[in-house]
Amino acid sequence: MRVNYERCGYCGACVGVCKSMALELIENRIVIYQERCKGCKACMIVCPLKALEE
Amino acid sequence: MRRVLKEEYDVLVVGAGPGGSMASYYASKGGAKTLLVEKSQEIGEPVRCAEAVPRLEEFNIYPSEEFVRSYIKGGYLIAPNGKRIEVKGGKTEGYVVERKIFDKYLAIRSAKVGTRIAVKSRVVDLYPCEDGFKVKVLHLGEEYTVKTKIVIAADGVESSVAEMAGLRCKKNPMEVCSCAEYEMTGVKLLDNHMMEFYFGDLSPKGYAWIFPKGDAANVGLGVIDKKKKAIEYLNEFLEHPILEGRLKDATPVEFKCGGVPVGGPIERTVGDNIMVVGDAAGQVSPLTGGGIYLAMSCGSIAGEVAAKAVKKGDYSMETLLEYERRWKERFYNTLMTELKYKNILQRLGERELNIIAEVMDERLEEIDVKKIIFKVVKKAPSLLKYFGELIA
Ligand SMILES: Cc1cc2nc3c(=O)[nH]c(=O)nc-3n(C[C@H](O)[C@H](O)[C@H](O)COP(=O)(O)OP(=O)(O)OC[C@H]3O[C@@H](n4cnc5c(N)ncnc54)[C@H](O)[C@@H]3O)c2cc1C
Ligand code: SF4
Ligand code: SF4
């Protein structure tokens, strides 16, 4: 997963559906811990702004 | 700040939203030494909300010019064909608040009864230890380990804190409403004291809203859709013919987005030395997506139970289960009924929604679902298949 920081509204919706705890919202920045990501795409589904890309 | 993070506490509340501020208020009031930890630089920021709350007198919180932007008398439910149903009075009354100010007001109210607050302080991990938790907090790049007897996880939709302690609270993506919203000025409202709710293909499996907010209005929507994004639906809604050009001269002053967990409460909201509150616990109305009132109510209960447990010197799950019993007694049945209604509503197409609107009275005080279904099925028996489980 990759975040398009230009599009992200730092709302944390993606963090709330990542069961692998691969996402964290730090102030206005989404951080992805790639080693934990299972590629389930849950985060992509809930993102209101299409800020997450494979 | 650094000193605050070097002490030990009875209760450590994570997240200074409405849930966390109310929980810490009642914990402090009950005599517990309480710390409220918020990762944002400013409490209340960023806003992810349409800012409508019901009356709050039961919390001894009275409407104040400080945070109330509009007084609300009720709402219009608007069907895809444009038919309006007016619902007024009772539970639909309330306010639209400035969340940035409201959230800070609640935090200050909690501080006034003794809560210590750490801002720009992020909980990154927690470990059970003898008699409580050791909570790892990052503040300005430095790591602090704060010992506490009880943790109250009120970290909102992100739901990471209780998950760190082994409680399952991450949500399924098809049970999170994906929202985008502009706060706009220059909106021609139907009525300065009425909320507007729009249903149909313009916002699949959710709804679009226009809420009056002082000189402005919150114009937004929430959808559950695997392909098209909330922001795309929102941009279309702004120009939708159903609005009859009422946003033509409107211009945004703020952009907000977010996710609302509408799949109902999580299975377990307590563990040894820990309670989960608010969005993190799924304490959100599945029908409206409203969560402020529930977070405040359940947060209050959690704070009271925490203070009692501290007095008793027993923070085990058995003692803290009083929280789960009490919040479920008040809200569980309503949440589960709403969940059922929501699941039906999500299956209805525009044709069905129009039929329902057609049989409903144009002015209502309360929505009597059974009565409406009865009339709908009488008019269009083919719709019975949607309502079977409700009638049975
Ligand atoms: C677009 C939108 C519109 C909405 N409209 C309405 C509405 O009109 N009316 C209504 O009642 N509800 C509405 N809701 C829902 C409402 O916003 C939430 O239900 C409510 O804010 C939940 O309160 P809370 O205290 O549980 O969490 P929040 O208000 O989300 O607070 C959680 C806090 O925890 C902090 N936090 C998170 N993780 C950490 C960490 N690791 N360490 C420290 N701090 C942390 C966050 O920064 C945040 O401040 C809306 C939601 C959205 C997305
Ligand atoms: S793809 Fe799945 S595991 Fe990876 S970050 Fe998104 S939600 Fe988490
Ligand atoms: S859901 Fe999308 S907009 Fe919201 S924080 Fe995640 S990536 Fe950013």
UniProtKB/TrEMBL annotation, chain A:
SUPFAM superfamilies: 4Fe-4S ferredoxins
Entry superkingdom: Archaea
Pfam families assigned to the protein according to its UniProt record, in alphabetical order: Fer4_21
GO molecular function: oxidoreductase activity
Residues of the 4Fe-4S ferredoxin-type domain: 1-27, 28-54
Name of this protein: 4Fe-4S dicluster domain-containing protein
Species for this entry: Methanothermococcus okinawensis
From TrEMBL, chain B:
GO cellular component, as recorded: membrane
GO annotation, biological process: glycerophospholipid biosynthetic process; membrane lipid biosynthetic process
InterPro entries documented for this protein: DGGGPL_reductase, FAD/NAD-bd_sf, Geranylgeranyl_Rdtase_fam, Geranylgeranyl_reductase, GGR_cat
Keyword set, alphabetical order: FAD, Flavoprotein, Lipid biosynthesis, Lipid metabolism, Oxidoreductase, Phospholipid biosynthesis, Phospholipid metabolism
One Pfam family hit: FAD_oxidored
Function text: Is involved in the reduction of 2,3-digeranylgeranylglycerophospholipids (unsaturated archaeols) into 2,3-diphytanylglycerophospholipids (saturated archaeols) in the biosynthesis of archaeal membrane lipids. Catalyzes the formation of archaetidic acid (2,3-di-O-phytanyl-sn-glyceryl phosphate) from 2,3-di-O-geranylgeranylglyceryl phosphate (DGGGP) via the hydrogenation of each double bond of the isoprenoid chains.
Protein name (database record): Digeranylgeranylglycerophospholipid reductase
Species assigned in the record: Methanothermococcus okinawensis
Lineage: Archaea, Methanobacteriati, Methanobacteriota, Methanomada group, Methanococci
